[in-house]
Specification:
- Helices cover 76% and strands 0% of the residues.
- It is mainly alpha-helical.
- The chain has a single domain, classed as Up-down Bundle (Sodium/glucose cotransporter).
- The longest helix is centred in the middle third of the chain and has 49 residues.
- The N and C termini lie far apart (61 Å).
């Protein structure tokens, strides 16, 4: 069979099969979703394999499929520091956050991260600020993810001559409908089980893409390095083209920042048993290492192909993965990776829909009214639908540069607001609610200012890394200058573990 003649059809079929899987998982999960604890926390009953795949899928997400190769293409080995940081971040999240956040979830029967934070600091204001910070970051992330999904889907459909062309709103409606269906019906249960499939696809794709990249460039990876060295020695040096301070700022932000990502932390609250963490961590890190092969291999291969004159220069670095899959990967492999791309995007989108809905219908009402809404499960599904619609419209009609701003703003906002509050505060009894509130408010405001005003930090230093350092400094300083907080017996017992 001539697979090459049906390359785009195979890609569309692979995506269609993944869509069908998502719908099937949603139908299956609706029977297991009987309460808000099920909808937001998967009943705190996830096993080792499912939790491990959900953790590493949330950490890598669509960045590894699209942004990662583009970073290698544009910056050389600079982005390898993000890979190192991402691997260390998984370990840090488990050791610094995992055990205690799971204990808080069990003892206080939490259904969200702000629930646990409110219990730790005994402050409804801290709950409210945390929920608002999460909601603010979620909309931008979701808008960027949904738009990316629609653009890829439209590109594949419109490349098949036998099918009528579709516009961007139609592509967004189709892909978003599938996302909304399984997110609304099955909540986080549907999300984590699709993460399981996504994780397996990413691991397999990473290994196979490495072989494809080796075959695409004369001399394999060694040949790619030779091409890059001859063109720009800095691109293949230890710090890439960004320089030492820029690399270390990205390393710091990716490592420490993961401890403040709500879609990652909440996965730690869902495990069946705390002592499963050691197995979950090992499986998650090993899987991520294989998946990162895709990030590195495509980026190196595409830069070498362009430098060697075999491929024309890309208009945008983020096109690296798409061009490589279309021209240098076997059609079946390309189809698998495109399905993995949709899985990565939908996995992240589902997680953000979930934490965003929890903020709207659970945390903000509890902080403002002192109680949750009646019929929480119904309103959780309604809020999930509402957030998806708002994010889709926002992604469709916002200026592209503003949308990109919000997409990149999310990680830094979560890091600055939640790393001190969670990673430090859940391990340090001296931490106060006032310190947490100031850290959250300051980090969100400063991140907005840096992005909106396009403030450039010298030497390639990431602005969000500066925000995180300031946030941590304020958190420690205010806590040390304040009167030591009085902890409840349950909080004291958990902190003593």
């Amino acid at each position: 069979m001539d697979f090459e003649s049906y390359r785009n059809q195979i890609a569309l079929l692979s995506i269609g099969l993944y869509f069908a899987l998502c719908i099937g998982v949603g139908i299956w999960a609706i029977r297991r979703t009987k309460s808000t604890t099920d909808f937001f926390m998967a009943g705190r009953d996830l096993g080792i394999m499912v939790t491990a795949m959900a953790m590493f899928s949330s950490l890598l997400s669509g960045v590894g499929f699209v942004g990662g190769p583009g970073l290698v293409y544009g910056w050389g080995v600079t982005s390898f520091w993000m890979i190192i940081g991402g691997t260390m971040a998984a370990c840090l999240s488990f050791f610094v956050v995992g055990k205690r956040i799971r204990m808080f979830s069990e003892v206080f029967e939490t259904v969200s991260l702000p629930d646990a934070i409110a219990a730790r600091y005994n402050s409804e204001l801290t709950r409210l600020l945390t929920a608002l910070a999460i909601l603010f970051g979620v909309v931008g992330y979701l808008a960027a993810q949904i738009l990316a999904m629609a653009v890829v889907f439209r590109g594949i459909v419109n490349s098949i001559e036998s099918l009528p062309e579709i516009n961007l709103p139609t592509a967004m409606a189709v892909s978003c409908a599938v996302l909304v269906f399984y997110s609304v019906t099955g909540g986080i249960i549907a999300g984590v089980y699709t993460d399981l499939v996504q994780g397996i696809v990413m691991v397999v794709a990473g290994i196979l893409v490495l072989f494809a990249a080796v075959q695409a460039v004369d001399g394999g990876i060694g040949g790619a390095v030779t091409y890059m060295l001859a063109d720009d020695p800095e691109s293949i040096g230890p710090w890439g083209t960004l320089g030492i301070l820029g690399c270390l700022s990205h390393f710091f932000l990716s490592t420490m920042g993961a401890c403040g990502q709500p879609h990652i932390i909440t996965k730690l609250m869902m495990t069946r048993r705390i002592h499963d963490f050691k197995h979950i961590l090992a499986l998650s890190v090993i899987s991520a290492m294989f998946a990162y092969l895709l990030w590195m291999a495509i980026g190196l291969a595409m830069r070498a192909l362009v430098v060697g004159g075999i491929e024309t220069p890309l208009d945008q670095a983020d096109q690296a993965a798409h061009v490589f899959l279309q021209h240098y990967a076997h059609p079946v492999l390309a189809g698998v990776v495109f399905a993995g791309l949709f899985a990565a995007i939908m996995s992240t989108a589902d997680s953000f829909l979930n934490v965003g809905a929890a903020a709207i219908i659970h945390d903000i009402p509890k902080a403002v009214l002192g109680r949750s809404l009646n019929h929480e499960l119904f309103w959780a599904r309604a809020a999930t639908l509402g957030i998806a619609i708002v994010a889709a419209l926002f992604g469709l009609y916002s200026p592209q540069d503003f949308l990109t701003l919000l997409g990149t703003f999310g990680w830094g906002t979560f890091a600055g607001a939640l790393v001190p509050t969670v990673a430090i505060g859940f391990n340090w009894k001296r931490a106060t609610a006032t310190a947490a509130n100031v850290a959250i408010f300051t980090s969100v405001g400063l991140n907005v200012a840096i992005e909106l005003l396009s403030i450039q930090i010298p030497h390639g230093i990431h602005g969000s890394a500066v925000t995180l350092i300031l946030s941590l400094t304020l958190f420690f300083g205010i806590s040390l200058m304040s009167k030591p907080p009085k902890l409840s017996k349950d909080v004291e017992a958990i902190m003593n573990l």
